[in-house]
Here is the input.
Amino acid sequence: MTIQRGSSLLLLALGLVFTQCKNETYQTQSATEAVATAPAEKEYEYDTVPGDPLNARIYTLDNGLKVYLSDYEEAPRIQTYVAVRAGSKNDPADATGLAHYLEHIMFKGTSELGTANWEKEQEELAKIEALYEKYRQTTDEAMRKKIYNQIDSVSGVAATYAIANEYDKLTTAIGAKGTNAYTWVDQTVYVNDIPSNQLEPFIKEEADRFSEMVPRLFHTELEAVYEEKNRTLDSDSRKVAEVINAALFPTHQYGTQTTIGTIEHLKNPSITEIKKYFDKYYVPNNMAIALSGDLDYDETIRLIDKYWGGLQKEPIPAFNVAEEQPIQQPIVKEVVGPDAENVSIAYRTPGINTRDALVVQMISNLLYNGSAGLIDLNLNQQQKVLQSYAYDTPMKDYGTFRLTGMPRQGQSLDEVRSLLLKQLDLIKKGQFDEELITAVVNNDKINTMKAYEENSNRADAFVSAFIYDMPWEKYVNRQEEFASITKQDVIDVANKYFNDSYVVVYKRNGEDKNAQKVEKPAITPVAVNRDAQSDYYKAFMAEQQEVKPLQPVFLDYEKDITEASLKQNIPLLYTHNEDNGLFQLYYILDMGTNNNQKLGMAVNYLKYLGTDKYTAEELQKEFYKLGASFDVFASGDQVYVSLTGLDENFEEGLKLFESVLENPKPNQEALNDMVAGILKAREDAKKNKGVILRQAMVNFAKYGPKNPFNTVLSEKELKATKPQELVNLIKSIPTYEHRVLYYGPRETDNLVETLNENHLVPATLKPVPAEKEYAEIDFNEPTVYWADYDMVQAEMMFLSKSVPYSKDIIPVVRLYNEYMGGIVFQDLRESKALAYSTYSFYSPASEKDRANYLLSYIGTQADKLAEAMAGMQNLLTDMPLADANFQNARASLRNSISTERISNADVLFDYERAKKLGLNYDIRQDVYQSANSMTFDQLQEFQQKYIRNQPQAILVIGSKDKLDFKALEKYGKVKQLDLKTLFGY
Here is the structure.
């Protein structure tokens, strides 16, 4: 399970005692030479917590910079976060969105990186800054337009000296992954995952990056932020969240300001204010570096001190927390939009560093944990609502707690609201099993173990501790404190905070009459100077010759996977877990809904059924108490039956798991409710633009009017289905030929014995039935398919069918995707400011004999769609040559593969994927061996053969009254797709 920022999982850690110690000196010379010639090396004090699962060392440099380190050799890579303890709450009230915009600007380089002539560029940037100050102080619209034309003109001149994306070129060249950043209310955090042999170049470059801020390519990046704002205006869930926060926090910045900022402030940006913000908050004593991965503690802290230690400590402005007055009665709000209806109830809670906040986290888990919470069992399990959940969001000064529910057909939002509040009342009255608290604690420990298997989660724990000003001792100790929470604590806190002091938001389906958008300014595309290189970049790349390369480790399926045979010759594929006491068990059948449409319905039905020994609710409680969970999933061509949890409870969990498959009890009422829920969920899916574009329209383009997505059971067929029919299907799952996958700590003999004893199968297994195949259609003529949807933006995909899967072209495919990813971003976002989100990639098929596809996406304002389509089409037709980008793409490909390590259960699933493609070896070997020798000519040959002028299906979703249909007609015959055609109902 992945830790999500702001979720209660961030608080999970082991509770132990805090100590301080000093590390030993680090020698780089022989002992004799050191004594004779070298001054004493600096010693670094660090804090630790004995027994800490991360074995973390926390340092504080002389300038106040916090450094969190954890050595965890998951792969020869290091997850890095640079965290600033300032977010949108620190924005000036008259310049909201500033922290977020600064985050974007921090990727534009420095006075040395990203510039071809800093002296001349600096002069133009000063003019732009002055013009923006004049612009934001001017109210006359004609004069504002004139000033903006000046800004646009001067920006074009400044761009001739700039080198776009040079920072990204550096990170790409060293093999960094996941380069990104995020801004939230309390923090701004910069993210990179780097190869361990690139630690020093990376630390040096990051120190340079954070030592100054250069507002390069400002107005084109501002347009990208406009588009990001428009995306939020198209998101009903984001609108609900903003309404909730504004009502809960009428005084504090959590509610009075949004992270992206108001439209008015975005239209009147101030480079001067952004510089002030940078100078105030981007100082070492307000920042932290969090690293987890394959690192040496002593070497790493010395490198960080070497390059970051010279940054100057500065006074940090105090943040005065606004005191919110109690909410005396429910505050009722309404949000209207195209998405499905729901209702949310939200409460204000105390800040994360209080014990009450920890109890709120417990209450959240008692209500909803995905298995045995009150909402899970009383509402979702019993199908009293379509879906519902609860979660807490801890923040520094306050927190929030939220209940959300989606209605069934004919159910009012008030009825859902009442059901949710009744579950909360049960908590307030203490009407819940005290054993549930113990189960929540145990499952939190399991979730922590799972989370800490990934360096991203380990480093993210450091970020949370720093941002919330929580000593590592307290962070680590919170799980022990969490385990000490009593039932009375829960009752007391629930009654203290969860009365009539809530905000309720009714999300209605309909047209938002007050919809806003950020209007597009007149922006002239700027030069990106793809082949230019700064002196800083040249020096950096020259130093790469001194970096010792890492050697790749490829999978050897025969060595990395233990194969055994269970009774009835069932294949067992096994990899050993040497990290912790968790296991994952899978039964896999090569049959799915393409073999039997009702199979998906049957596996969904299973979660509502009990056995001869347990009710459905009791089953969920039993699994949760064991620290285990089971799931059954059906795709078009496979069924996965899975059991995961603590290995110490493996036998008990397996017996319970097998009893569920062997002896489910039919339940007519549960089936009736499930069918009604399916029908309501189908209607809701037709209101989801993501489902319409990415699933319904893509499947229509690939397979035609009858396709895997819209081939569903009719309402009549659903209602005619009998409980016993589905139960028989469930029981039949283990009777077909299948294989077993296991990742865990057990040895082979013990595992085979346990499975043979408990896995219930007949004497003879049946072969799987024939699968219905869907033929992929050829794109004989260019066609534009469009669907009407009430939205500010328009979203578009270019889809091209290519040749069937062939392992021979995979190396050049990987290089093409690496290269074109940067080119598309550079051209459509950096140069032309046409989109916040855009990409293009060639997608190999997931099984042999299926076609590969080229998929290109852009989301933009509807009035920029024509420009965006032309821009994307030009790139697909004439792939530009940018030698620096090409060399970086090639280096990145090798660096990435040399540091990738496929481990744990992923080894098994990588083998599964390879088999479907007819491979018996790790295909990355071919990519790595080819990467250095591939030329741009080969890339161009691939582009000419498989991409240029290939027949296309262009998919567009947007509002009918905003789309430019004349522009669409240039790309082919325009056909509207109605929802019934797309969804099949």
In short: The CA atoms of residues 828 and 834 lie 5 Å apart.
